[in-house]
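During the no-cost extension, the postdoctoral fellow (Dr. R.K.) reprocessed legacy sequence entries with the updated structure-token encoder. One reprocessed record is reproduced below for audit purposes.
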Amino acid sequence: MNTSQTRRRRIASLLIIACALAVGASTGVRLAAYGVPFALLTACVLGIASSSLWLYSHIDAALTSTTHRCRAPYCTVQVRMRHVSAADSLRWQEIAAAHPTHDTR
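Re-encoded structure tokens follow.
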């Protein structure tokens, strides 16, 4: 992975964290207007921020990953990878297509 890809990944990670904190903080501001106790407010903000972080991380993983599946009917074997070279992706695609259960040898 080159430096520009690493830089993009770091920026994306920081944006994901910032969005999660913004969602948690906005909820905290809205709850504080109703006089919610600080301990309860903190728990709510941290819970919402962590849930948002989980959601944004999974969206990022879904958008940036490649999945190779076995082509046999009703087979559930799949290989999911992120940030790999084209040669590695091709190798894993071949492995997913010819895993031991469907090997014809």
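The longest helix spans residues 3-32. The two ends are 37 Å apart (CA to CA). The remaining legacy entries will be reprocessed before the final report is submitted.
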